[in-house]
Write a structure and sequence with these properties.
The complex is a heterodimer of chains A (223) and B (308). Chain A is an alpha+beta fold. Helices cover 34% and strands 29% of the residues of chain A. In chain A, the strands form two sheets. In chain A, strands 1, 5, 6, 7, 8 and 9 form a six-stranded mixed sheet that branches. The chains are: A alpha+beta (223), B alpha+beta (308).
Chain lengths: 223, 308
């Protein structure tokens, strides 16, 4: 017997560059209230996302009522977050926050088509909170791992969402893997920078710099 | 060994105490049904078992598994398994139905599990605090929670031993992505043994009562793959948020609204990562210990990511 209690949708971890490509949405049943999923190009369904990034800009773009737009940047791109009168808590958070700030967002993917036919993907927030740099770094590491796991499973037999992604999109899943790895490597370098003044640790950071990305780690360092 | 042969031996073993059944004969009957009549194996097993039950004049629930496995209560994760337990009777509850003779909680070092004994099984009464060896109990599942049922074949042996009862502790880690309603400053029913949370000043059991203030957080931890509902009691909530009961009451008083407390707590904890440990109760983990994982180990993360 499977669990029959109503299940909460998991919050997927996805970088902005992939999220913004997830313009195809679908439902799993004909029920009017069936949850809507965005199809991630790495082959996963997302009814909810969790991300942490830097709020760089916020603006009230509403005409009659307040309608806040926030730009939240991660190592790969920018999430667009919109909150209006139906998300009063998130809207008031955006109103009060001062950019730049690290923020954590839980929210639902939303898509809309512009006049020229391009599909834009944004987030309707359920919550926005200000967090610290450690939380942001942890999210980058976690999201990098989840992304690479999805790409690794992309060619698995029976990976239904990967099949769907192949039908609906013309993206190469390897680009998301490359972006995820480089986000993690940047994190490693910035950690090295912080330690640079710290005696022997500085040597580690320097040797990291000379190890070129993606080459055989045992190979000779490039000149 | 073929699948049919395995099934045949298992069935023969089940009846070994009651009938002279030979595995070859069972196998032949199974084979006939499966190969000749195209009956699915499950159905064939059922049919053959029933016919032996008839032969022996037995009821299905008298049939033990030849050797039912001895198990720890925390290992039970499948419906309708026959197991033997070494447990202490931790708690007896009030039966809610006349058909139930005893209901309560059994425990061993791995944790605790609910048990039910039925009037029709005619078993001796169990005593709270006593340790027992129980043979031939059957597992049961409801909405992901497991329990065991005693039945008329269950062997009950008192043992003179102290059993340390464990707490089914689970550890979960993830981002706190939601604080559910019924969190923050709440009121509980003051009636004896009733700690229900009041809705609009009413207890679902005792009606309108003068509630007692308490703090708790019902939250959701999410690691990107699974969600786990967790409950922080007053102590854990104070530790998590740094807000005590008095401060929460003052805050609610100032705002003339208790919901501000949960909102304020949300500001401090939503979107952060936590690792919590505690016993599971239904679908909740009750938080005993909580820590913030702090700085991520980027190097380890890189090594892991490259190895996927």
């Amino acid at each position: 017997m499977s669990q029959s209690a109503p299940t909460r949708e998991v919050a997927r971890r996805v970088f902005a560059s992939e999220f913004n490509d997830a313009g195809y949405t679908f439902t799993e049943s004909d029920d009017e209230r069936a949850p809507v999923y965005a199809l991630l190009p790495t082959g996963e369904s997302a009814n909810r996302v969790f991300f942490v990034g830097t709020l760089t800009e916020k603006e009230d773009v509403g005409e009659d009522a307040e309608y806040w737009r926030g730009r939240i940047v991660d190592p790969t791109g920018t999430f667009f977050v919109y909150a209006g009168q139906y998300q009063p808590e998130a809207a008031s958070k955006l109103r009060d926050l001062e950019a730049p700030a690290y923020v954590a967002v839980v929210g639902k993917p939303r898509t809309y088509e512009t006049d020229d036919g391009t599909v834009r993907v944004s987030v309707r927030p359920e919550s926005i909170t200000e967090v610290d740099a450690d939380t942001r770094d942890r999210w980058v590491a976690e999201t990098s791992r989840r992304t690479i796991e999805r790409v690794a499973a992309f060619d698995d037999d029976g990976n239904e969402y990967a099949r769907m992604a192949r039908e609906e999109y013309d993206f190469d899943s390897q680009t998301y893997k490359a972006a995820a790895l480089s986000a993690l490597e940047d994190l490693d370098e910035s950690a090295g920078d912080e330690l640079a003044g710290d005696g022997p640790a500085g040597g580690d950071a320097a040797s990291d710099d000379t190890a070129p990305d993606g080459t055989d780690p045992a190979g000779t360092p490039e000149p | 060994m073929s699948e049919l042969r395995q099934e045949a031996e298992a069935i023969a073993e089940q009846f070994s105490d009651h009938l002279n059944v030979d595995a070859d004969e069972v196998e032949e009957r199974l084979e006939n049904l499966v190969n000749e009549y195209r009956v699915p194996l499950d159905e064939a097993r059922r049919s053959v078992t029933n016919s032996y039950l008839d032969d022996a004049g037995m009821e299905r629930d008298e049939l033990g598994r030849g050797g039912s496995e001895s198990a720890l209560v925390d290992e039970i994760d499948e419906d309708e398994q026959w197991v033997d337990l070494r447990v202490k009777l931790v708690d007896l509850w009030e039966p809610r139905s006349d058909s139930i003779s005893q209901v309560g909680l059994l425990g061993d070092e791995s944790g605790t599990i609910k048990f039910v004994a039925f009037e029709t099984s005619d078993l001796p009464e169990l005593t709270e605090g006593q340790a027992y060896e129980l043979s031939n109990v059957v597992t049961d599942e409801y909405e992901g929670s497991y329990s065991v049922k005693l039945n008329r074949t269950t062997g009950i042996t008192e043992i003179d031993e102290e059993i340390e009862v464990g707490d089914n502790a689970d550890t979960v880690e993830g981002a706190l992505v939601d604080i559910q309603s019924g969190s923050g400053l709440i009121k509980r029913c003051p009636e004896d043994d009733c700690t229900r949370v009041l809705q609009n000043g009413r207890c679902s059991e005792h009606g309108q009562v003068e509630g007692e203030f308490d703090l708790r957080i019902k939250g959701v931890l999410d690691d990107g793959e699974t969600v786990t509902e967790v409950i922080f009691d007053r102590e854990a909530t104070e530790k998590l948020t740094g807000m005590g009961l008095e401060e929460a009451k003052d805050m609610a008083m100032d705002a003339l609204d208790t919901t501000v407390v949960a909102e304020e707590m949300g500001d401090d904890v939503l979107g952060r990562y936590y690792r919590v440990t505690g016993p599971t109760f239904g679908r909740y983990v009750l938080v005993d210990e909580m820590e913030e994982p702090g700085k991520v180990d980027v190097e380890a993360a890189l090594i892991e990511a490259r190895s996927i």
